Amino acid sequence: MKKKMSAVLALAVIALAAMCMAMFPANKAQSEEYRGGSISFPVKTAEAIQTLSEPRGIYTKIELTLSGGDGAVYATATNVLTIGFSEVQVILEMYASSTPQSDYLDMSLVGRNSITDLNMGDSLVLRVETRGVPRYWMARMTYQKDNGSWKEAVTKCRQANSLGEFID
Q1: What is the pLDDT of residues 74-93, one digit of tens each?
Q2: Whether pTM exceeds 0.85
Q3: Could you tell me the pLDDT band of residue 16, with boundaries at 50, 70 and 90?
Q4: With contact defined as beta carbons under 8 Å apart, do 126 and 98 qualify?
Q5: Lowest mean pLDDT segment, chosen from 21-35, 53-67, 86-100, 148-162
Q6: Is it true that domain 59-160 has CATH number 2.60.40.2060?
Q7: Beta partners for 10?
Q8: How deeply is 165 buried, as exposed, middle or buried, from its count of CB atoms within 10 A (0-12, 13-18, 19+)?
Q9: Is 68 exposed, middle or buried (0-12, 13-18, 19+ CB in 10 A)?
Q10: Hey, which residues does 163 pair with through a beta bridge?
Q11: CA proximity to 71, closest of 134, 139, 137
Q12: What band does 28 get if pLDDT is binned at 50, 70 and 90?
């Protein structure tokens, strides 16, 4: 039993070390020494600073939900999981129509909210009042991790009553 635990622990340490090396690349060749009077210290070059600002996130999972009640409909984007250091920009949009639609482009944009960095465990909420009118609703989320390509998620079209409570 002790041998199995030792082997599992050794594999965990190796995996952690590999992950740290992937997230924090070495920049030894990109530093220079500054000598001024009796003081000397390493200085990062512009190339090294750019390398440090490049994306290091490994994985991000953002969930989109559509809910309602109390006279409003809510679109919520939640950063469920982020592995590594990532900046996640999120844009939420809400669309409404008096008839059911299969594409948000056939509906009216009624609200928008955004955040430049949605941290793990945090949520971005967009609240739109129903104004007492029953309608069909869709939420759309676009997000970008570390200046990468934009990704999109869209909810299905749902019918809500005048209180924002979903009928379907």
Answers
A1: 999 999 999 988 899 999 99
A2: no
A3: low
A4: no
A5: 21-35
A6: yes
A7: none
A8: middle
A9: buried
A10: none
A11: 134
A12: very low
Q: Which residue in this structure is represented by tokens 């008096």? A: 98
Longest C-alpha distance within the chain, in Å? 77
Spell out the domain ranges in the chain.
Answer: 2-53, 59-160
DSSP per-residue letters across 68-111: EETTEEEEEEEEEEEESS--EEEEEEEEEESS--SSGGGSEEEE
The DSSP secondary-structure symbol of 28 reads G
Which run of H or of E encompasses 1?
A: none
Distances in Å between the Cα of 52 and the Cα atoms of 24, 47, 85, 93, 150 are 8, 9, 11, 33, 22
Residues 6+ apart with CB under 8 A from 97: 106, 107, 108, 135, 136, 157
* Tens-place pLDDT, residues 119-144: 999 999 999 999 999 999 999 999 99
For residue 39, which amino acid is it?
I
For residue 15, give both structure tokens: 């995996």
